[in-house]
Amino acid sequence: MLATIRHLLSLIRFSHTVFALPFALLAAMMAWRMQALENPPHAWRWQELLGILLCMVTARSAAMAFNRLADRKIDAGNPRTAARHLPAGILSTTQVTTFTVACGLAFITSTLLFLPNRLPLFLSIPVLAFLCGYSYTKRFTSLAHFWLGTALALSPIAAWIAIRGEVVLQHPGDLLPALVLGGAVLAWVAGFDMIYACQDYQFDREAKLRSIPTRLGIAGALRLAAVCHATTVVLLGILLLVYPPFGLLYGIAVAVVAVLLIYEHALVRPDDLDRVNAAFFNVNAVISLGLLAVGTLDLWLGAG
């Protein structure tokens, strides 16, 4: 049982939760700060935090496991992915299917039990369907990277709605800070996914799979990824305008993000993709976790 659990966590790349979860938590901190400004004294509730954490982990796990199921035959033919759990026979299709269904049900149940309004429950099935739908996009569109970016962009938007859903229903404009942060996440994820997809350029062409690298070439994909990451920095800067509680510390963090993204693109070249994994995981983990830490500190100092 312990070995199966370990393999399942490896299957879904649990460590990659650091890409979306910090932005969900940052949006939650922003929403709680707005609550405190509007209705002092107001404190966050542990049930809300637990609900957001459970929803994020279970939804991502369900979507990632579903992706491995949907792509198991493709992965078997790709030398880079042939050693993954399903092609290699480490886990069975039945085990992964059961895990996927269990995580999906846990996600829906978490919205019911722990979140303060019913809007997340009503949206849970459409959101889960959108997350799982990404698995088939590269079969018919080169814009699969943007679908993935949108899937992760839902995390800060969903966290905001989880806390301020009733306010959003009455005043839709209240969602604007979360939408801007979500847009930054969308562009950021789409950009680094294009970089990552460059590794499979030759295989994707032969297998007739669609991606930005197969459509524009590796050099073109890296240029478009740079445009996406420039958009990320711009949107993070705009967040200062639409969410006034952020101050100088957050502004400095945005400048650091810009430097890190420049460094990320310096790591890879069309003729040298050896450092893609460093660009993909290490730099982006620092960006997401760093923004969460500095953004939370900024809000906490402002509250004081």
Question: Could you explain how this protein is built, in words?
Answer:
This protein is globular. With 304 residues, it is mostly helical. Helix content is 76%, strand content 0%. It has 12 helices and no strands. The chain has helices at 2-11, 21-38, 46-70, 72-77, 93-114, 119-133, 144-170, 176-197, 201-206, 212-242, 248-267, 276-303. Helix 10 (212-242) packs antiparallel against helix 11 (248-267).
Concise description?
This protein has helices at residues 2-11, 21-38, 46-70, 72-77, 93-114, 119-133, 144-170, 176-197, 201-206, 212-242, 248-267, 276-303. With 304 residues, it is mainly alpha-helical.
According to CATH, the fold-level topology is: Tetracycline Repressor, domain 2
Shape-level CATH architecture: Orthogonal Bundle
Q: What's the average pLDDT?
A: 93
Question: Structural class per helix/strand content?
Answer: mainly alpha
CATH domain class name: Mainly Alpha
Q: Total number of β-strand segments?
A: 0
Biggest pleated-sheet summary:
none
- The sequence of SSEs as H and E is HHHHHHHHHHHH
Question: Uncertain runs with pLDDT below 50, 5 residues or more?
Answer: none
**In percent, how helical is the residue content?**
over 70%
